[in-house]
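Batch job 17 of 40 flagged for manual review because the log was empty.
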Amino acid sequence: MADTNAGGSGANCLEKLKSYVTTQKGFILAAEILLSFIIIICYAASLYGGYSAVAICEMVFAMVFFAIFMMDLDKQIQVINWVWSDLFRAGIGALLYIITSLICVIGGSGDGARIAGGVFGLIAGLLFAYDTYTIFLQIKSTRQHTAASTDDRV
């Protein structure tokens, strides 16, 4: 007999994708992936293609975290603290994008693609910094809700 639910898991994954992109975290991660892809294209067209390594790494990391959060694997795999891992990913990404983008914008005279990649990199650095800020607020609010008294002698 033919399986009538053959497209069920694919449709379920697509529904999870659509619903996760509408959340704030999903939108930020999707924007990070898109900006990183645009930066890769700009740096690939540049005379100096070596700057694309930061964009490639950050795009891959953002895709991994997007998939983990979209499929709710962060609730199933609790060995890793995903919120802190995401904080470090976004913070390091913001620093690397800002540093490499400033280098490209300042030293990119005569190379329009490198300057364009640098400008998009600065925008991506700001987006990653905003992501870091929202994650920090999430950690701060979680700690305030779970704070307990350490003094048991009342």
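Reviewer: the log was empty due to a logging misconfiguration, but the result itself is present. The CA atoms of residues 20 and 26 lie 5 Å apart. Unflagging and moving on to job 18.
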